[in-house]
Amino acid sequence: MTIQTSIQLFTIKDQLEADLEGSLAAVAARGFTAVEPYDFVRRAAPMADALTAAGLSAPSGHAFLASESFVNPDGSGTTLPVPSPAEVFAAAKVLGMHTVIDPYTAPERWESVAQIEETARLLNAAAEIGAGVGIRVGYHNHAHELEAVFDGVTGLEVLAGLLDERVVLEVDLYWVARGGVDPVALLQRLGSRVIAVHAKDGTLDPALVNAYPPADQVPAGDGTVPLVEAIAAAPALELAIVEFDHYEGDLFDAIERSRVYLDEKVAG
């Protein structure tokens, strides 16, 4: 199967808010042909126009499907309600998106198997709605799903075992490594459930990783996360997605270097 390189647009969140069209044009100028939008329901139409103008597609996107309100990137909650699955999928259709991935559930929801069962129920219900309009549902991890362990099984794997077969996984390789789990072995165990990865790299330097956003992230191939080996362990992979939670250097240079590395090593 051909693996397509993409970029999670959260990487350029500040630039995107300041200049939607210009930011997407800059992404295309760095050699990307696909992107993964976030928070796209409120701006589906203008984003669709900007994607078309830049010659970009959006095969996947991030939207909350198993939470009642928005969760901040640092894990803190809000009282701001999220759009319904039906609204999310309608916006996804405007963008030509075929997979909508839940980006985050709060760490306190991973303290028991019963809580994970409830998350699975919500994702399965969303998948049923999505199937009716041709949209696939997925889930994206951070570290806490791997740090939670039940009878020797990580919380993410517990979730996978409870999901409807139509629900897929997007594994963030950096956060897996941050959670103390071998990304290669994890992807081997998850098998064909994984259709996308965030091919995010970092040094995992203990002095840099404890704050949010983490300060150790580097262009793909420059860190210690085994990106190529992990991707090779995912037999059904469709998307290798560049993402930075934070980067102090030239961000657009870093995303281009990441794309080149992935295109050379795993895409095609």
UniProtKB/TrEMBL annotation:
Alphabetically ordered keywords of this record: Carbohydrate metabolism, Isomerase
GO molecular function, one term: isomerase activity
Domain Xylose isomerase-like TIM barrel residue range list: 24-232
Keyword Isomerase set for record: yes
Domain of life: Bacteria
Pfam families membership: AP_endonuc_2 (PF01261)
Name of the molecule in the record: Xylose isomerase-like TIM barrel
Species annotation: Microbacterium oxydans
